[in-house]
Specification:
cell membrane, 439 residues, mainly alpha, 17 helices, 2 domains, three-stranded antiparallel sheet, globular
Length: 439
């Protein structure tokens, strides 16, 4: 089939937008950590790009999207060999066979960016205390054993797709998947030294707002791009993304004002991300009024959900569970009530707009199945890594700062003035006569 140049151009742009989300996440997460671990936090996102790209090219695409959707296709591929190993077959078969006119390699690149950010999202739960090498190993194993199978279940013709689950852009595949894994990994590594006693506030809210802005910007490619075409549904997904995100951000800071007496920059950034997460599975299926409702629910519920870690006594450093797991569930389950525009075989409208209750059942089953699978496999993989190579840095390295002990760098080389001279964290002392530190 002839390539549709308009749709292909849009999908190339959307792919770049989604890839930008991972550096955006690095800023968002980096600003939320303490200053002594900002570089390590950002590196965990950046190295996810490297690790997942390699795995995707070698076998990830083939596992997620080439396996048959007959319930046994994924296992058969593992046993009998993988199509398009190394993406070799995607060049010769230039366009997808769905009539979209999109090159297969463009589709594969778009899906790769989803796999990358899903892995990177998990890292926020274990900030300040994970060995970098162990994270690299975990990223490769988790993508292989969890992300690729789940992407196949929902988007690659697997059993959840056959049941008619609706997940437009990854509420179940990305956010519930990553959120459940984050909870498991937080339990494996345990709490940070001094958690619950020492202040562990974000060290740079400017970076947090910058990261949230980049995530918001890139998310238009994430959601609107998931239509894989340029049409009315693309516009609907785009507009719903904006509506839900803005309203969730506003709802979060209203909750803060009523509950705490003040609205915060961290709150508006976190609320925006919660809205983005919740509208992700629903953006192409619901009317704008429903997107507004989803935004209100996400901003309000997630504002309270991030505090669950203190009541349940687990250290999810950067609130991956409270925002991504909870927000993803809100969006996925909401489709069982308000989905108005189902378009795939087996999908139905939500019960509030005349659909059957069976669709609500599927929208509950999907998050439960994916959440349990991700949690159990992640916990097992995390424990194996911890027992073999060790997953957590020593307490001494954690207290000193993981940036300097792991990467031999510091995020901020501002220098310290003493009576005897001016010392720099990354260099020798400067004589006191200098009276300044070079910018």
């Amino acid at each position: 089939m002839e390539i549709d140049t308009g749709s292909t151009a849009w999908m190339l742009a959307a792919t770049a937008l989604v890839l930008l989300m991972t550096p955006g996440l690095a800023f968002f997460y980096g600003g939320m950590t303490r200053a002594k671990s900002v570089l390590n936090m950002m590196m965990m996102s950046w190295v996810s790009i490297v690790v997942v790209t390699v795995a995707w090219v070698l076998y990830g695409h083939s596992l997620a999207f080439d396996a048959a959707g007959d319930g046994t296709g994924f296992v058969n591929k593992l046993v009998g060999g993988l199509d398009n190993l190394g993406l070799s077959g995607l060049v010769e078969t230039a366009t997808k066979d769905d009539g979209s006119g999109m090159p297969n390699l463009v589709f594969s690149a778009f899906q790769l960016t989803f796999a990358i950010i899903t892995v990177a999202l998990i890292s926020g739960a274990i900030a300040d205390r994970a060995k970098f090498g162990a994270w690299v190993v975990f990223a490769a194993v988790w993508a292989t054993l969890v992300y690729f199978p789940v992407a196949h279940w929902v988007w690659g013709g697997g059993w959840l797709a056959n049941l008619g689950i609706e997940d437009f852009a990854g509420g179940t595949v990305v956010h519930i998947n990553a959120g459940a894994a984050a909870l498991a990994l937080a339990l494996v590594l345990g709490k940070r030294s001094g958690w619950g006693k020492d202040p562990m506030r974000p060290h740079n809210l400017t970076l947090v707002l910058l990261g949230a802005g980049l995530l918001w910007f890139g998310w238009f490619g994430f959601n609107a791009g998931s239509e894989l075409a340029v049409d009315g549904t693309t516009g609907l997904a785009f507009m719903n993304t904006q509506i839900a995100t803005a309203i969730a951000a506003g709802t979060w800071i209203v909750v803060e004002k009523v509950r705490d007496g003040h609205s915060t920059t961290l709150g508006i950034a976190s609320g925006a991300v919660a809205g983005l997460v919740a509208i992700t599975p629903a953006c192409g299926f619901v009317d704008p009024w429903a997107a507004a409702v989803i935004g209100i629910l996400a901003g309000g519920i997630c504002a309270f959900a991030v505090g669950l870690k203190y009541k349940l006594n687990y250290d999810d450093s950067l609130d991956v569970v409270g925002v991504h797991l909870v927000g993803g569930v809100i969006g996925a389950v909401a489709l069982g009530f308000v989905s108005a525009y189902p378009f795939a075989d087996g999908q139905e409208k939500g019960i509030l707009v005349g659909g059957p209750i069976s669709q609500l059942g599927v929208q509950v089953l999907g998050p439960v199945a994916v959440g349990l699978y991700s949690f159990v496999v992640t916990y097992i993989v995390g424990k194996i890594i911890d027992k073999t190579m060790g997953f957590r840095v020593t307490q001494e390295d954690e207290v000193t700062g993981i940036d300097i002990t792991t990467h031999a760098e510091t995020g901020y080389d501002l220098g310290t003035i003493h009576s005897s001279g001016v010392t720099s964290p990354n260099g020798p002392a400067v004589p006191a006569e200098a009276k300044k530190v070079d910018a």
